[in-house]
Amino acid sequence: MDSTSLSARIARGTPEFRRTNLALFAAGWATFALVYAEQPLMPAFAADFHVGAAASSLAVSATTGVLAVMLLVAGSLSEAFGRKGIMTLSLLLSAALTVAVAFSPNFTTLVVIRAVIGLAIAGIPSVAMAYLSEEIEPTSLGYAMGLYIGGSALGGMSGRFLTALIADVSSWRVGVGVIGVMGLACSAIFWRALPPSRHFMARPMRPGALVMSFANHFRDGGLPWLFVMGFLLMGSFVTLYNYITFRLIQPPFNLDQTMIGTLFTVYILGTVASTWGGRLADIFGRRRVLWLAIIVVIAGLAMTYAAHLPVIVGGVAVVTIGFFAAHSVASSWVGRRALVARGQATSLYLFSYYLGSSVVGSLSGYIWSYAGWPGIAAELIAMQLLALLIAMRLAFLKPLPIPETPSLPQG
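Above: the chain sequence. Below: its structure as tokens.
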């Protein structure tokens, strides 16, 4: 823990807390909108560029794959150069590159630009989590992290919905361009609203020290398990939304792009669930909440086996609620367990998180090709059962020897 007193941190109910939440909500919205706006367009890419389902998933996986690796670099850079500047530059560049995607002459160019977006946007997720862990008063951290992830949920919903809607009435190029312009607006809001770091302590960029710092996180009793949790959660969640679109455009459902986009409005439930999950974790402790959220995910996946559209949509909604609650709890737990080099710890969690999105999201295309939706659902339930075992292991994790405050549940 740094030497700054806890009482000097940003507390819930203050103007600074509201400004911080506005800025991070805008950043969360833009991050998920810019990364995942192309997801409902995968069938359109497959048709326009004459590629298969697995190949079309590269429009998303190229971004998340590069993002996963670059998170490790961005987290370390932020330890040396600060938080706000890196986040602002990352958001601005990512939004501008998304506008460029709309002018892609072929699928190869589109994938290359999307990969560069992954490089650019890496400065947001891990650094934002580290900023909140450093600047927010501990008893308000779960709530603040939940609001940030809620912004991500809303961005994921509205980005996907808008591109799908505009693709139906105009073209996917116009839809992607609109999301890029909205990302530029979020960059301005973020830069104006976010208070400067007051508790950041620069760490020199010494390669040997960085390697040792990364290694120290793997010596913790809980952090490595939380990293695996991120992989399983996000890998399952992205795979669900990647291939449910292919299922629903086929008989007997025959949904169009607008209807597919409407499905993503269930993301609004994630906005509520992330804040709710973070608040419950603040009150009852993370070890008592995480495994319950994963059971919710498993129940939702089981519902998607149904042949009736309302039950399938209900299942997707239940998965969304459980996922965002679990991610809110797990991500705030990383910030609590990592007493030093939080930027690196959160970058490791998010490396695993987005690696799951990229690897599982793309490779599952082959399961779709050979086993259809029953194969996808079985794969995802198996992954979540593994996540449940990890959550139960974390429930018996030895608490930190010196909690940051007596009133906060121990990490």
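The first helix runs from residue 15 to 36.
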